[in-house]
Amino acid sequence: MDLPLAPPPATPALRVVACTTPQALDALGEDWRALEIAAGDALLPFQTHAWLRAWWSTFARHTPTRRDTLRILAFYDNHRLVAVLPLFETAVGIGPWPLLRCLRPLGADANLTELRTPLALPGYLPAVLEHALAAPPRGGTAPWVLQLVGPAAALEAAARHHRSRLQAGAGRPIRNYLLPLAADWDTFRSGLKRNIKESLRHCYNALRRADLSHELVVIDEPAALRNHLPDFYRLHGLRAAMAASSVVHPDYFAVPRHRAFLEAAIDGLQTGGRRDVLLLGLRVGGALVAWRLAFRCGRGLYLYYSGYDPAYARFSVMTTLLAETLRWCIGQGMTAVNLSIGTDVSKTRWGPAEVLYQETSFVPTTRLGGLSRRLLRVRRGTAAPRSAAA
What we know:
Elements (H helix, E strand, L loop, with lengths): L1 E2 L11 E5 L2 H6 L1 H11 L9 H11 L2 E2 L2 E12 L2 E15 L2 E9 L13 E2 L4 H10 L9 E8 H9 L5 E15 L4 H6 L3 H16 L4 E6 L2 H19 L15 H14 L7 E8 L2 E11 L2 E9 L8 H15 L4 E6 L3 H4 L4 E12 L2 H16 L8
Parallel strand pairs: 6-8, 13-14
Antiparallel strand pairs: 1-2, 2-4, 3-4, 4-5, 5-6, 5-7, 8-15, 9-14, 9-15, 10-11, 11-12, 12-13
């Protein structure tokens, strides 16, 4: 159905279509894919139609105490899709009598979907956020909460216009790290900090002293990628099981449903001859000892979860794998590598640019809003804790 949108000044007049069923989401696929292509380097894998369709099929819940409903907003400028805000509503209660309604971005999982931001062409994001804040959940009398994730500055600017009727509640910053690449490896390497240059020398010298060869393995053919996923899961689990580590790395794929979701998303991202998913491996002395899952996004690469054999930890194989990956990306003409979210030295020592996102929950500035906050705290207190991001 079409919803009215009153855009702020200096923004285009948009037509907004709400998709509330899986069939409507499927029908949006062709336009959504065209939007992904137009977004180019700014695209994240978690904003793709394939990722979110797989997420809904895997994680949507319909139980006596919880009902999930799609609330995806598609923004059209004339006949062109220019932005998508993928939301879903969770009604928590007993049968048809909800006690709390939560409107959240698709991707509320155990850190499989790292960034849950709207997909919008340049210039359209303010209108998307404005519409989301101006048109909160409708219908029913249950308390409600609206959660949004977006670039911190853009989200704060949009919320500023609604402070009289919306109160920003619980929130958290999300730091993402983007590493620009140079035209060639030598130029890129010369611009690195001294500590990472020393680490690279140590990695390669350690392998050389042990008389071990090394080779980067790049797999993007769908059947071959599927065949190697079990080994990726195995090494991811081995890394998670390491007792001595400065950074906690949970085994996100120990749960069968998580593996099923990832494989469905990969299948969707690889349809039509596309090769948007890669497994990057490091072969040492003939053995594949490390893997990193990654996604092509325009002229860039998004680095997802990884794993390695602890027996090769003394060779710093994950640093070597990342260095070889960056060298390969430069050779492919890529312009940037997204090191993913989470602040740790394995990312920051490369000197990336920090991109700050914000996750904020909004409730109405009414008595109903106060009840919403209290119910949300109760719900969070009884829910299983989320794992920390790796």
